[in-house]
Amino acid sequence: MAQELTAHALTGTWHDVYAEVDGEMAAAAYVSGIQLTFHGERFSVTVHDKVEHEGTYSVNDKNDPRQITLVYTKSSHFELNKPRTGIAQLTGDTFKLCLGAVGAHPPSALNTTPKSSTVLTVFRKKGLEGGTPVAKLKVGVLW
User: Hey, what CATH topology would domain 7-125 get?
Assistant: First the structure.
């Protein structure tokens, strides 16, 4: 059952366990090195031990699906200070996030399709992985 999506519930570090871009699974070598950290109203994305993106975020828990908006203040790939809105679901130690392009409307479902400019990522909370091995995937820039 999905939980309330709040800053408190998101606080901490999340490991990427699955990702797809435009309907294609992402590469294992890339995905396994991604961490998303939330602290207060800020987020950061670390890719293979290098902080690639930082910024602020906000959650709209009134919509269904829940909406989350990221605003990058540092990024190696995305336009700064513009909203990137997506939808999200939090269930236990699993956080699903589907983002559209910077400045675009949020996706309508937690999936991607070819040429949709959407990214779906599934994260597990650090320390709660339970030691379960994660499947390795394939593709370029997710974040």
Answer: Lipocalin (2.40.128)
